[in-house]
C-alpha cells in the first residue's frame, strides 16, 4: 500500500501551501486538515469492531477521503481555533465542543504507527524556555545568566549581579497573546526583546503580577538561525548588528539585514542535532548568538518554528523541499 502524508495545520499556513506541490511530485498524496475549518468541513469515523480499528476522515467540500491506515507520515504544523456548524453556541457549549473535538481528533491520530514531524507530546515537551536552557547546558552550550521570577526585588538583585545590561523577553508569546483574543480586545500587538533601562527598573512592581523572564544581554558579532530537518542542519548567519533596529532583536522585518548560509563548526552542528534529537523531534529551529570572541551562545529552541522566511532570504537552502522530501520518504518507508 502506498502511504500518504497527512498535514495538520490551518488554512492560513503558507508553509503547508508550498510543501504540498512537492509532496504531490513525490506521489505522497497529501491530505490536509485545516483546524480552523474542523470539524465543520470534515467528517470523521473511528469504529472499533470485533477487535479491529477502522478510521477515516472526509473533507466535505472536496469529497476527498482518507483512510487512516494509509497514513505513513504526519506533519503537525500550526494550531487554530476549531470551527463548528453553529456560530451561536453558548459559552459552555463552545467549551465542551472544543474539548470533545480535541479528544476526537487526537484520539484518531495517536494510534497511528507512522512518522511524525513532530509528535504533539514531543512538541509540548520541547516548548518550555527555562527547561531548554537547563538542557542546553547539559549539551555543552554556553547559556546566558537568566531569571524567571514574579518578585521585583529578585530582579533588582539580578541586575546588580550581572556585569552588563539585562533584557526582558517573553517566555510564551512575543505577541503578548494578541493572537489569542479578538482584534477589538487587543491592547498591544507584542513586545520585542527589550533592554531594561533605569526607568523600567524604577517601575518593576508589575513583575509581582506574574512570572517574567530576564537575561543578561550578550554582545553579538552575529546571530544564527539553525534549522534542523531530520538530522540535517541549515545554518543561517544573521548580520543583526548592521542595523540599530535589529541589534537587540533581529526579528524587526523593517530592517534590510543580510542573511547568508554558513557552515557551523562540526562540534556545534553535532550539538544542535543531539539537542533536537533529545526531545524526539524531527524538526526544530534553534536561535544562537556568536559573540565578538567567537563563542557560541544558546538562546532558545523553536520546536515548530517558522522557516519559510529563511528560505526566502537564502533560497539555496530549499527548506520547503527538504521538509517535503523527508515526509514523503519516511511515509514510503512504512509502505
From TrEMBL:
Record's keyword terms, sorted: ATP-binding, Manganese, Nucleotide-binding
Domain of life: Bacteria
Matching InterPro entries: ATP-grasp (IPR011761), GSHS_ATP-bd (IPR004218), MvdD-like_ATPgrasp (IPR048936)
Database matches in Pfam families: ATPgraspMvdD, GSH-S_ATP
Gene3D superfamilies (UniProt xref): ATP-grasp fold, B domain
Keyword Nucleotide-binding: yes
Coiled-coil parts of chain: none
Residue ranges constituting the ATP-grasp domain according to the UniProt record: 133-328
Protein name: ATP-grasp domain-containing protein
Protein source organism: Rheinheimera aquimaris
Amino acid at each position: 500500500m502506498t502511504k500518504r502524508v497527512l498535514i495538520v495545520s490551518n488554512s492560513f499556513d503558507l508553509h503547508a501551501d508550498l510543501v504540498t506541490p512537492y509532496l504531490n511530485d513525490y506521489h505522497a498524496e497529501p491530505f490536509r486538515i485545516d483546524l480552523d475549518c474542523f470539524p465543520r468541513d470534515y467528517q470523521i469515523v473511528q469504529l472499533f469492531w470485533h477487535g479491529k480499528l477502522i478510521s477515516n476522515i472526509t473533507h466535505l467540500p472536496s469529497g476527498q477521503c482518507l483512510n487512516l491506515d494509509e497514513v505513513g507520515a504526519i506533519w503537525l504544523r500550526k494550531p487554530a481555533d476549531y470551527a463548528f456548524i453553529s456560530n451561536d453556541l453558548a459559552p459552555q457549549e463552545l467549551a465542551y465542543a472544543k474539548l470533545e473535538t480535541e479528544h476526537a481528533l487526537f484520539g484518531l491520530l495517536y494510534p497511528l504507527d507512522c512518522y511524525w514531524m513532530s509528535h504533539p507530546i514531543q512538541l509540548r515537551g520541547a516548548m518550555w524556555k527555562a527547561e531548554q536552557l537547563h538542557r542546553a547546558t547539559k549539551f555543552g552550550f554556553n547559556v546566558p545568566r537568566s531569571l524567571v521570577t514574579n518578585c521585583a526585588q529578585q530582579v533588582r538583585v539580578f541586575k546588580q549581579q550581572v556585569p552588563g545590561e539585562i533584557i526582558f523577553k517573553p517566555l510564551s508569546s512575543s505577541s503578548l497573546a494578541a493572537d489569542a483574543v479578538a482584534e477589538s480586545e487587543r491592547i498591544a500587538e507584542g513586545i520585542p526583546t527589550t533592554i531594561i533601562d533605569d526607568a523600567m527598573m524604577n517601575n518593576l512592581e508589575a513583575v509581582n503580577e506574574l512570572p517574567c523572564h530576564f537575561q543578561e544581554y550578550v554582545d553579538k558579532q552575529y546571530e544564527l538561525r539553525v534549522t534542523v530537518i531530520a538530522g540535517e542542519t541549515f545554518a543561517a548567519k544573521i548580520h543583526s548588528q548592521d542595523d540599530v533596529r535589529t541589534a537587540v532583536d533581529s526579528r524587526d522585518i523593517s530592517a534590510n539585514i543580510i542573511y547568508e548560509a554558513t557552515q557551523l563548526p562540526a562540534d556545534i552542528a553535532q550539538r544542535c542535532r543531539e539537542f533536537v534529537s533529545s526531545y524526539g523531534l524531527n524538526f526544530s529551529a534553534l536561535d544562537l548568538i556568536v559573540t565578538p570572541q567567537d563563542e557560541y551562545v544558546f538562546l532558545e529552541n523553536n520546536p515548530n518554528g517558522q522557516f519559510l522566511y529563511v528560505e526566502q532570504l537564502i533560497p539555496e537552502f530549499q527548506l520547503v523541499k527538504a521538509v517535503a522530501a523527508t515526509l514523503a520518504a519516511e511515509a514510503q518507508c512504512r509502505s
